[in-house]
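Re-running Levanase to confirm reproducibility after the cluster update. Everything else is unchanged from the original entry.
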Amino acid sequence: MLTRRRTAGLFAAATQSILSLFTAKPAAAADPTEGGSPLRRGKTEPEASHPEPADRPGGITPTPGTTLSDAEYRPAIHFSPRIGFMNDPNGLVHDGTQWHLYYQFDPFAPYAGRVHWGHATSPDLYHWQDQPVAIDQTPAGEAFSGSAVMDAHNTSGLFPQGTGGLVALYTRAAPERQSQYLAWSTDSGLTFTEYAHNPVLDLQLSSFRDPQVFFHAPTQRWIMCVALSRDHQIAFFGSSNLLQWTELSRFGPSGITGVDYECPNLVEVPIEGGKTAWVLFVSINPGAPQGGSATQYFVGTFDGTRFVPESDTTEFVDFAKDFYALQFFTNVPSGNPVSIGWLNNWQYCQETPANSWRGVMSLPRRVSLEPDTTQRLKLIQQPEDLTPLRGTASDATPPSRMDAGSSWETPLPASAAHEVRMSVEIDAQPAGLPPGDKGRSGRFVLNFLNSNEETLSIGFDAFTAQLWLDRGKLKGFSHPFFTNSFSAALTPDQRKITLHIVLDKCSVEVFVNNGQQTGSALLFPATPLDRLRLSATGAGATLSHFELFPLKQTVRAEEGQI
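Result of re-run:
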């Protein structure tokens, strides 16, 4: 266990280490000792639907000290920044050798603003290695979200003849203008050179951001989808060389618009049976049904020019509250979609209980489509294979049969992160039950507990076919927008459920019925959750499968938990 003194020492060393990465870069845009970026001093922040306090006159000075919560809430298998503030993933790409995770990053303080592209690399999507900042803030503006692609055939002409490389397209965000810039890399994405004739796309707008770029093989051209944020539209552009862009079409307003559209991604997603469909993901902030920020999606067709949704139905990627700015990797070796989202919400992300860092990425997820009972295609999400991360499975085994009113409890294995997999079927509803909650319910509940009377509850109400996630009895963080509980409607008249749960310090991700529903939530218990209790109420339950694994630390594992 870390002592407070050792924790502070580790943080001080880590802080010095990562600051050296930035000070070694000659193009660094801000001086962290001056209490704010000299590029932004006295000017307003770029237009966005979230506040950027670090951009306001005077800025925000770096936090000089650390707290024990910086280590207590640091996840073990989810990527988080060593210091500073991290929000949207962007520029997700596989370069043929390794995975690149770029992300929106203020390296100077745990608040939004002074946005750079942070960078980490991984051989397997779990073991992430910190890299120096890849794209800096410059006098032209902050480096907002975008994408990275492999220009393998040098369509841009930016690389030596017969070679290719990584190209990043992203938004330069200034107070009065947001336009799309290009930069390219000759060292496998560690550093980038800005194109001399930037911007490559400029509509003279102040709310025009977050380009996603991919190569569309049938039309043999690059496609960009980019948000006209305040107009609630997604614009599609085409290019043969990544440098000159022609508008093709627009989508929207559609779905739930919120205040701003952000972070669009258009992806061809496989359907069970071998077919595919195009899915347009659009993030909104604020104005999501649960409050704050969320990502919705539309299933349809794309002919290389125009996206047409198959219906006007609005679907959301996640039934909880802490999943935003979903982004997909390009150049995936398998050809199947792989995504990562920001596990947070703009309503409270700058106030969560850590003093030197803020921001967590979701687990990497495999994505597909499957028809529901009405034959509408719905998103299926499952985490990338966790098998290599598993320690020895717990030998504690619940009874295969649990009567109504019974419970079973076991300590969680000694680990920072845990995985639970189980299948359970609730008995049919008996006739003649008395009215009232306990008489009518047929519920199966998983409670993660501690001795501090804190509980994270995940439960299934079989007779109404609904699932809940309740973090309201955790005591480490309070905020008026930090909603306590969430629910999801499952397939009607189905009393069987499969659950795949990953609990990692400050987060939980719940994958229901093989990914038909997914819930992602931040957690801040005052003391670690160290026990698991299973309970059946109102009806008996039969467990056909149960596994409990500790998960090995993967992020900065060589440095210990800091």
